């Protein structure tokens, strides 16, 4: 329990009152694959509709997926910030709760964008960042070998994670990072998040986690966990990999309890 929670509990005990219960919100991160045809977009929307998250992070969001989302699920998500693009750089947040201070920002030292917002849940504020770190196979120079590309992109993801840690170092309230991190929990970007106090949803109670890539759109079975939900000053539970959909990633979800 944090020092502030001890103070709240003590004050409530003195006044004879019970501390207010934590606000809880269901969140989901989904890389929906920029090259998905219409039938696969429908399959991915089915996963979202069935899971019904309260806050949704979408990566590789294209104009086609954004239009289909608005048509099918727009009424369920009155608070939307969709920034679709052709290719893999599109990003969006969909929320059943009000969004404040929404900002698209470069995930330094690269320009690939993240999307940040304050989500107002039961009168409390949760800072969220919808992320997509550098893919392992992204090319830098035509003459680079595969091993050189993997090495350069792992280093770049580490620097991106360090920049994100710095970005939120002075944030006093709870912070949620979710999305496609493009690496497993033992690699350097993810360990940088852990060292900065971000806990993994799959380490919380009632977790049913596992590999998230490749997903249902691939004939190759999934063999690596690269989509993650991380929190600081939050209690994370019920994490689950959602098999199905029409993407080369499986979606991940979790329940997030904000501090009182």
From TrEMBL:
Pfam families reported in the protein's UniProt record: Exo_endo_phos
Statement: the UniProt record of this protein carries the keyword Kinase: no
Alphabetical GO biological process terms: DNA repair
SUPFAM superfamilies the record matches: DNase I-like (SSF56219)
Obligatory cofactor(s): Mn(2+); Mg(2+)
Entry superkingdom: Bacteria
Protein name (record): Endonuclease/Exonuclease/phosphatase family protein
Keyword terms of this UniProt record: DNA damage, DNA repair, Endonuclease, Hydrolase, Magnesium, Metal-binding, Nuclease
Naturally occurring in which organism (per UniProt): Myxococcus fulvus
Endonuclease/exonuclease/phosphatase domain: residues covered: 28-249
GO MF annotations, alphabetized: endonuclease activity; hydrolase activity; metal ion binding
